[in-house]
Description:
Blueprint: H1 3-23, E1 26-28, H2 30-45, E2 48-51, E3 55-58, E4 64-74, E5 77-89, H3 91-95, E6 101-112, H4 119-134, E7 142-153, E8 160-171, E9 179-187, E10 190-199, H5 201-205, E11 210-219, E12 232-244, E13 254-265, H6 268-275, E14 288-297, E15 300-310, E16 313-324, E17 327-340, E18 368-380, E19 383-395, E20 398-408, E21 411-422, E22 425-438, H7 439-446, E23 452-466, H8 469-474, E24 477-490, H9 494-499, H10 504-507, E25 513-526, E26 529-539, E27 542-551, E28 556-564, E29 572-579, E30 584-587, H11 588-593, E31 600-601
Parallel strand pairs: 6-7, 17-18
Antiparallel strand pairs: 1-3, 2-4, 3-4, 4-5, 5-6, 7-8, 8-9, 9-10, 10-11, 11-12, 12-13, 13-14, 14-15, 15-16, 16-17, 18-19, 19-20, 20-21, 21-22, 22-23, 23-24, 24-25, 25-26, 26-27, 27-28, 28-29, 29-30, 30-31
Amino acid sequence: MSRRTTLALSGAVVTVLALAAVSQPWTIAAPRAAAFAERDLARRYGLGLAVTGPATLTLLPAPRLSFTGVRLRRGSHDLVASEGLQVQLGLAGLLAGRPEITGLVLDRARIALPDGTGSDWAEPAARLATRVAAGRGRHLRRLVLVDATLTGRDPRTGHLETVTGLNLMANWPRPSAGLDLSAAFTWRGVPATLTLSDLRPRELAAGAETPVAVALAWSAAGPGAAAARAAEGSAEIEGTLVWAKASDAKEEAGPRLSGQGRFATPSLPDTLAWLGIASGPAALAGPVSLDGRFTARPGAVESPELQVRVGDSRLEGAGAASLVRGRLNLSATLAAERLDLSGLVPEPEPGGAWSRTPLALDGLTSGDLDLRLSAASARLGPIEAQDVAAGLLVRDGTVEATLGRATVQGGTVKGRAALAALPAGLDARLQGSADRIDLGGLFADLGWPRWILGRAQASVALDSAGSSLADLVGRLGGRAAATVEGGEILGLSLADLAQRPDAAATALRRGGRTHFERARVSVTVSDGVAEIGQGLVRGGGLTASLGGRVFLAERRLGAEARIEPGPDGRTGAFAIEGPWLRPTLRPLAARLLDKTVPATTLPAAASAYLP
Length: 611
């Protein structure tokens, strides 16, 4: 081996050993190392650095200081407490003996977010914005959080919130380049991921517009049925961001974001529950998505072009949301070709009894809502309607639903229902009217026996108060009236009843019917009992009157029908009693004189005297 070869090999070995040496961490004095790094943190951001554990220095592949037991402070307040901190340094500054921090890696850090006043974070944020806008000195090119914990207060409720398991990586390679960020974390037991790209920090700090793209996804769903209804969804934003200054006393300084936004979730109630918002009507239980243009400023979002999908219903229009003193305010005007509101119809109680489940508006009135809907056609349970205009208003502890108009079975329906919170339950009020409704078609839609035909008009005004549906029915009061023109009663022959009052079975024979020119009934309701003040059927040379009571809480009838004497002297009187879905018909004379005469139960298709 020649001398030149020996020298070359020796040089290579020395180089390898030198590289190995500088690639290994060197234990150094922690106080001096911390003071060295703190000089740059204090100069740039006004932050102090306290270290309780040992420190090491590694030169390759990039110079870095590593600490354990770290606290980043502002004055006497700890903003960040971390089990480990890695400070990445610029080589040129290190050779010149001055610190130039280019990256930070925090291991298992506990970070206290601003509490609303932002006093501890205000100066560090202001210094950072000034340096970024001016483009002075080296910038922080990389920030990494490993298994970090963030704590802060919800601005709506003031409750302390915690984000755990945060793994974040932010890269900003050059001052003129964009900032990219990706993060994974868990909040309220639901894992989520966040990505941000294209953001230009220099333009943002200088008050200029910058492009930005943000995507957030969350999902607690996993294998098995237990997670089938867990919170799941996604939100995406593509647009421009600017940090505006306050223009007047009413306009706050802060970010202004505009662009295109999308939101989707297969189960809105679960997602709202995750966010701490009441889920509201069951109509929102299916897949829900929003897509449209928007502009956002601190505490408010407006969307002049909005597309909403709720289950199979698609709506278009405009909407807005704002947060005032922690209270959410929503407003929207939406139109649909077809709208399915079947989820608003409550499920009946087993056995048909009135529910005694306590009622409250707390979940529905946690925010304000002004919603206006229109649809070419709409379905509410089994009822189909056309040309629908409706609204829902939630404000100051009250819920008010209005039906401006709707065409149902060729007629027009209007109405208003209002609920207000009471110390022990609800105050409920209902007003409505209907005109020229085809009763036969309506009963068919509802699945009821078509025992009466004709065009009806009706009005109702009712009110009540109580802590459950059973209480509301038991305390119901008000008035109601209905009139039917040019119809007939199926399954009942008043003429046969007038000829033979004791032969109710013959009168109720299959195929019996009574034609009439006009039928009218009006009731006065008090404490859940409807008093029939006027009941009249006129037609075919006969006039029949109806009086008595309907016991709403017990779902029971106690009424009397009387056929007035006609030109031929035919007459008759009958009692209608028992459950309103299965009442009995009994001639009054037979009941008074002969207790052995059996009652005749009205068949389902012959409930002719039901109000």
